[in-house]
Amino acid sequence: MLAGNLAEFPFPSLVGALMNAGRTGRLRITPLFLEAEVYLQGGQVVHAAVRTGGRSLEGEEALDLLVGLKRAPFAFEPEVLPPHATLLGGLAVPARLAQAQSAWEGLALPPDWGYALRLPREGKEVELGAESLGVLTQVEGKRIAEVLVAPGVLRLARVLHTLLQMGALEAVPKVDLPPTELLVLPIYGAGSGVAYVDEGLYGEWARAIRHAFRLKLLDKEVGIEVRPRPQIPGRLGLLEEDLRRLRLRRGDRVRVVPEV
Amino acid sequence: MDILALNEHLNRVVYGFPAKLVYLLVGIYLVVFQIRWFHAPLRMMRVTFSETFGALRERAYAFGGQITPYQATMVALSATLGTGHLLGMLSAVLLGGPGAVFWMWMGYFFGTGTKFAEATLAVHFRRRFADGSVSGGPMYYLSRGLPRLRFLGHLFAFFAAIAAFGIGNLSQAGAVGGALAPLGAPPALVGLFLALLVGVVLGGGIVWVARFAQVVVPLKLLLFLVAVGPLLILYGGQIPQALALVFQAAFTPEAALGGAAGYSLFAALNAGLGRGIFANEAGLGSAAIAHAQAQVDHPVRQGFWGVAEMLVSFLVTSLTALAFLASGLWRQGGGAAEAAQALFQSHPLGGVVLALTVAVFALGTMVSWGFYGEEAAAFLLGEGVRWPYRLAFATLAFVGPLGGLEAFLAISDTLNGLMALPNLLGLVLLGGVVGRLVYGFFRGEPWIPPR
Hints:
Chain A: Pfam families: DUF4388. The complex is a heterodimer of chains A (260) and B (451). Chain A is of the alpha+beta class and 260 residues long.
């Protein structure tokens, strides 16, 4: 079984190689938050489908989307037959792939389509067209993959690219970590606006998020910069100034959660 | 010169007035120049309370590791709050007059710096083992902090390991036996009970010692309040005069008390400083062995618990002294035991409460000192010595109430005093480390343990 990652073997080259080898079977591509299948029969691409949540795309639109995937594990299972045909095969497929590839080349979307889209925290004034505005109103809180699995993939990708470039939208990892209960520990020193957690807990969060993050104090509804500190398991280190500001004192229990 | 005569001479040196001045000077050096208490006294007081009494509600939460900072302090307090806080305090007032109380407070104030430095250094230089357990105390901070004077650590451990058998065991077991004898408890039975209790608790290691201390220290304080509370109420009207007398007699005892009383400034200083130094063990280095066990993110945090230990000790000695002074019985002179009997005659529960308080005070001291001695012996001779040491300690606990072994007791008393020699020298030489740690702590810097 042929397996690998699109980061090393881009989708158009992979499909081209399978077509040239005259293979029959199913190419499964499984990035997080997406499920994609491409069926070949005797070297001809006869069916492509992409699904995420309740939405799906088939045929050429699915191929357009898959060309934009920069990294995702794939596996080719030989001799698996398609449920039905959505593509005509022949030269139309390589041509479509080439066209989609050139369209994606000009776009800079985050490589991880699991990232969620949101309006920026510090907004600035931007001028948007009707199309961009229409998209903007529908994407808040959704993952990039969810937005793109819709008719008009390349158009949507172009609009998203524009919105991200203009700063009208930002893409951040969707953090779904449970709140942690910590005891407040005073840290003596000048400054404010920084919280400290044990380096073990910080590392755990950093590995899960893989992006810069802040800390949200759930009971106070306050976000604060967070840094690792050795030997304070179960504690939330807060500078004296912040203790006063947040009306907290030593030993208070606070629920915190990292936020991007 | 035979060994007992030599011991007597040494004993006079280590507990003499010049030695007390050395304790005081070391405390002043640490408080003023290294901890720099007077740099921001109000802030230091606020932080001390926040880090100790303010952290009581999180007493069950460690920073990982075996025992919490609170528990480590309980182990130290269990040793510190001994019979010296009761009978020793009465003795100091009888010897030095009311002015001795003022000088005792001075000893406490500067001794606080010494205790702070001991606890801080004990955590900073402690050794962590692969199983997560730790060992520390003066033997570690002397040998790791002063590599060229490593022998000081070994010297301290030698003195502590042997002194623990005498001052920390035989004396205490004798005090328990003596206190319970009037209540009809046979000394052999008391000895057997003590041997079993000490053996079992020490056998469980620091975790059991800490659990025991966590129960026995509040019990000590409760008994103390039951013992001294009614006396303070009974003599409440005389307390303001007693307090005034403390200050008047501190500098001019002859004028305050009348020449006939026979109290001099030197007697007040000598007796007061002695209590202010030896009752709380600041400078001896013993409590540092317990503080080293605490799991904290920064050694200075444990240093503040050392201050809290001193505060509790200060309150117990001061309230005892005030009750005694207010009663007026100190004017009758005599020994501490007779004075205590006379004082507690007016207590609603009579001498029983005194007997129980003395017994529990001595019992707690005994267990903590067993741990101190064991740690010192393990430092000198390795981990294999722990069980033999525990068995020997339990055996002597049995012997204590039966009496005898006076010569050994006298020598161990001297060795107890000698523990201060390497410790105080080390505290002066490592004062800079304490200063840097305090400076870093108040700049919010994390602690980096020495390699």
